Amino acid sequence: MKRNIFKYITLSALIFNFYACEKNLDLVPLDQISEAVYFKEATDFKLFANSFYTYLPAFATTGSEANADLATYVGGSVISRGSYLPSEYDGSWNSNYDLIRNSTYLLTKFEGTSESVKNASVVYGAEAYFFRAFAYFNLLKSFGGVPLIPKVLELQDKELYSARASRIDIANQIISDLDKAIAILPNQSGLSAADNGRITKGAALALKSRVALFEGTWQKFHNGNDANDFLGKSIDAAKQIINSGEYELWDKRSQLGDQSYRHLFILDKKQTNLANFMKGDNKEYILVNRFDIDLRPISSYFADPTRKFADMFLCSDGLPIDKSPLFKGKINVVDEYENRDLRMRTLLMIVGNRYWSNWHAPWNRDWSRPNDPTTGFVYVADFGVRTVTGYSSIKLMPEIINPPGCDWPVIRFAEVLLNYAEADYEKNGAITDAELDFSINKVKARVGLPRLTNAFAGTNGLNIREEIRRERSIELYEEGFRYDDLRRWKIAEIEMIKPLLGIKYKGTQFETDPRWAGLDATFDSEGYLIVEDASKRQFDPKKHYLQPLPRRELLLNKNLVQNPGWE
Amino acid sequence: MLAFGSNSNKRYFTRLKYKIDVTDKLSISTNVSLERKKILEPSYYDNAVAYASSSWTTQFPRTPKGNYFNFGGFPNAIAMAEASGERESDANQATVLFTINYQPVKGIEITGDYSMNRQYNSGNYYNKIIQHYDYDDVPTMRWEPNSAGSSIHLSMHKVANLYANYKYFLNNHNFELMAGASHEENDYKFFSASRDKLISEAVPLLTMGDPTLQNTNENRSQWALQSYFGRLNYDFNGKYLFEGTMRRDGSSRFAEGYQWGNYFGGSGAWLASEESFVKNLKVFDYLKFRLSYGELGNQNNVGLYDHISIINIGGLSLFGNPDSPTRNLVASTSGTLPSPNRTWETVAIQNLGVDFRLLNSRLKGSFDYFIKNTSDMLVTKEFPEVLGIAPSTVNGGKMKTKGWEFSLNWSDKIKNELNYFAKFTLADDQSEITFLEDSRVPRFGLNSFVEGQPYNSYYTLAFDGFIQNQAELTEYKKITGVPSNLRVGDARYNDLDGDGKIEYSEYKKGDPNSGDLVNIGSSTMRFQYGLTVGFDWKGIDFSAFLQGIGKWNVMSGIKQPGATWWEDPLQLTMGKDWTEANPNSLYPKATADGGIDSWNYQQSNAPYKWYTTRYIRLKNVQLGYSLPSNWTNRLKISKVRVYFSGNDLWEITNIPKGFDPEKPFFGALWTGFTPFPRTYSFGIDITL
């Protein structure tokens, strides 16, 4: 018995020895790095700058096209309709101030680092400047002037309760941050292969041209004083990019024919077109939110185009449908697509055309026999498919790969060319043929449209400003520009209150074809499907040009003043 | 458990206990227990459950040829269960408790104990490719890629206590002194790995996956607690009892200098049934009055390292060749400001109680009244969002909770054959936030902390019925903040301060510049009660447990059926929404407009949003029969019992039918609907 007891005690002692208590109360995280030991190497700055890229807009946010007048979805958008109310919190307000804090935070971390680390990581400081500008621009677009936060705030800082800076101050802050970024960032061609996808000098210049055009035209059309100053900056920035030769428009008509334009937006790392172009063949995108079939697949939802968008496309002679003899009318469902801007034939799904369908099994996607009905294009756009408006968009809609991994274009070269044309026209009240050829005519040429010249406009009674705006609205459709453009041009009060219309129903194939006949809907005097009646739409010019600040922010900070009309 | 796919759930349990008296002064005991739980289920179990309830009623399970059919964007729930692959979890834990007891002289006892809980949980899963088909058996939606993964959780929890007890008697004076210290610590480790695109689904291991498509994850954490404690008891003749306590607690969750808190307590009791004048009443078999005051520290809801500024490494960013990008790590701040000067919450409880037994101790009962004061309470102080990061909680609030508890217990037997009992408990408490460091502006909706109000109070607009005609609508639309596209049949809320605007700030009587939010009540459960009754008679045993809440305000989370058109609407509003023929409806006019939906169905005191509910529920009922022991003894079995048991079999509640009264409207599904099961089980217990 006694020996057993000693064995027992020995065993117990062993347990203590194996698993003794060993901690005191001063414990540190085991799987995280404390700030005190971070920001010692250039890699530390690089990894932190990587977090900024998660704030880039992506596919999920593209419902925004339905906020304007060129697209809508079932139920419609409260923004488009003007029936929204101030919200308590605003996700965009919060995430943009998060980004402002994080980018400012990185910039403060250069203090006390060695000269060599500073030199090796200065480019990530430039990225911080870029993203801080990006965040302030998002706020400026929605709210106008907002509080300008000069530092990384602590709970006791009085700057938490700042009043709103003027919109000019915010715009100047953005331009100043971008100038700092431009001075440091490398060109696209100067990026190492491993850094492809990071912010470049081109991206910062392009954002500068976008911001300066936005604020320049806002100043011009909303009774401001600084229009020409900003417009001049927009022109200069755009010109630098165009002259740099770093980017070129996607034009693969020689290999892909008329469908070339559509394939720009659905390039992937698997074959998505007959010529087997991949993402690497794209020299047009300046900054993307990068996706990947395997590593970061996308999910997307798009709205349906309205009549206004369908009618906006020029005929192939460069004339609008009400002026061109080439326009075929709308009696048959496919008529209106004839003799039009190639983008109409590639952005909209045409009834009866065959498309790939990414839901179909791989054996139905045989690139060697694309026109074989058993192995090739298996989805026929069906006349019976009823979208809200009767039109279907296929821009940015991957056809063959599921899940898709195509990139989201945050900035692309076509926009820069259009920024240039518009800023030049608005600054000078006119634009020369040479300037048109330098900019907008390149965008028109690749979709088979003739040059826009002052003589052509004069002969045909076209307004150059209208044509520049038309080109922009079509080219940047679904990319989140139209709502901002209508507001800065100060024509939202005219355009947004018009009814949202769909296809022409009365007197066309729609009315007689059994698949659409007997549609229970309302129609306007010309026989167009009314998707949303004008009586349901409003845009109060004293109110809706700016969004309301979140209510909670106003309650917590008495120095903040609500936007007019929302008090 | 699902009706489709592989499902099993196994548990094993064993316990080993020793006590050895080494000498008459020293004894050692150990208690070892081992537990194992194995679960096997479909790898898309959660999807199977979610899509089973959210799929449209028009969804066919299969196509005529037997393929999985899918409708619109909804995957097939049966495919999710049957064709998905499996996930397996194997949870093991071992607990060892080792105690040494030493009595050097009479009256002194020294106890040391050490316990260790080791948990080892491993899990693995694989997902197969699932192909859906349309009704013509053309392939449609495809769930891919396939993948496999594996994970391991390890935790070690250790507690050591050492304390000494000293007892001293002098005539009728009894003293007892106890002092000791304890140490507690925890270690946690987690590792997981997975790969996509398996070469073969026949051997679904992660090694079969594509090495460039792998994800690995490792987490570790640790915490420690230390305490010193002491207690002094004195009683006179077992009739007058006094106790004083102190403890000093330290936690690793706070920064140096804020880790320790000191807490004191004292209590007195009077055993009145020992007094002759009570004995002479011949009513009470036992009667005791108690009075106490005690403080405790609380560190719940404090993160492990909240006081340290942390950089998180993780996430994913894609750079490099756009057609074969490389994954890059992302560093970011933790998302919450660190809180270096935070410390323990203090909870001080005053208690007054009485215990009694009557009628030959067949009736037992107790009643307690308490006041709980929480100080240095951790509250979320609110700052403008321009801060750009979530503020940490601060020791900035005080809360007072008053409550009482009552219990009554009757047990008796009839003719030594029928034993029966009934037990009833009832409790209630109410809290009030008595102080807040920042004078909080109540926000729309649920507010945890508003000075002068109960914990978790709702502030909403005041519902004023539905707009019944065009004239009312025109008049109402003159108010700013009313949606311009509001219709007859939609909800109307009061402009309480009468300034012609609907404002989401608190209404203050007589102040036209205040706002229109009112406090409509707190979501705290009130008057919680339970009743257990049972009997046993000649081997038959029966028990039933009823549980309920006397008053509980709940906010419905359901929305307008049809407001999101791709969801199948809930049945409950059918025929009950506003129409001209049904102007006194419960629900507003139907709409597919998101803006109108959020106006009508915003949180408010409208009767279709705000339910003052109460419920009583039959939580459990059991009926069993034990075979006579003279039968079982022959088989060398000490007991055999067959039983029927049922859970949640019946309830009365006033929330809409189909919702779980215990979790109303808190659904995991997008419609805010959690189906709840009624469980029936039959079983046999065999004790060897």
The average pLDDT of chain A is 90
**Structural class assignment of chain B:** mainly beta
Give the total of beta strands of chain A. 9
Strand content of chain A: 5-15%
| Silhouette of chain B | globular
The count of β-strands of chain B is 28
Largest sheet of chain B: 19 strands, antiparallel
How far is the first residue's CA from the last residue's CA of chain B?
A: 30 Å
| Main interface: chain pair and counts | A-B, 95 and 96 residues
CATH topology of the domain at 39-244 in chain A: Serine Threonine Protein Phosphatase 5, Tetratricopeptide repeat
State the share of residues found in helices of chain A, binned by percent: 25-40%
The radius of gyration computed from the alpha-carbon positions of chain A, rounded to a whole number of angstroms, is 28 Å
The helix tally of chain A amounts to 21
Average pLDDT figure of chain B: 88
**What's the helical proportion of residues of chain B?**
under 10%
Give the biggest beta sheet of chain A. 2 strands, antiparallel
CATH domain class of the domain at 39-244 in chain A:
Mainly Alpha
What's the quaternary structure here? heterodimer
Q: Compute the CA-based radius of gyration of chain B.
A: 32 Å
Could you list some keywords that capture this structure?
heterodimer; A: mainly alpha; 21 helices; B: 688 residues; mainly beta; 19-stranded antiparallel sheet; 3-stranded antiparallel sheet; 6 helices; 6% helix; 53% strand
